[in-house]
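Q: Structure for this?
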Amino acid sequence: MTEKISQIKSFYEEAFQIFDAKSEMPEIEVRFYPYIGINHTIRVRSGKVFVRIAEICREMPMNSQKALAYILVAKLLRKKVPSKARQVYSDFIKTQEIREKAVENKKTRGRKIITSAQGSFYDLDEIFDALNQTYFRNSLPKPILSWSSRKTYRILGHHDSTHETVIVSRSLDDKKVPRFVVEYVVFHEMLHIFHPTIHRNGRRFNHTPAFRRNERKFQYFEEAESWIERNVKHLKRKAKIK
Ligand SMILES: [Zn+2]
């Protein structure tokens, strides 16, 4: 275990101590995971706690890691999330989002942005239509679908509700990537259209329990999750060598 992971793990132990002092400390496993966006999960399986933090937060400062630990453990134990923790974490996410937008703007400024759903291997329009038929009875309005201009590895998909756009990372437009993986990323973004963001008390809820339940309805859910876990880092390494 790296030093960083063990330090992060200690925040989770601390949070369990605070929110549930009476119970015995559970075994905790913390990992970074190449989720589709900024998205983390905490779950209990046979008494063990599994924490998966979105890869994009790997370089997050330790005070924000600690805040995230408090948020996830509070949610798991159905306790009130301390407002300080929420503040520290959301401040980090905001600056991160602003930084990424700034980078993207710099790259696209002064040149025409060409969006295309047709990649070299996969056609996002076709994938959307098939999924819409299978899982949504053709009820979802079609957004603008496009492969990203660059091959991104930390964010595989993105839904922008303001512009009704779904962007999929070009790193997945590759013959080595199984079709069900591309479908899974598109399916996830389609669920964001199906479950619009809920705003409550100034907070945004994207991946609600209902969203998560529907996500598991994807036929190749387990296969796609494990493929992403096994291969995204590998794709990145390969790209670096090129
Ligand atoms: Zn999402």
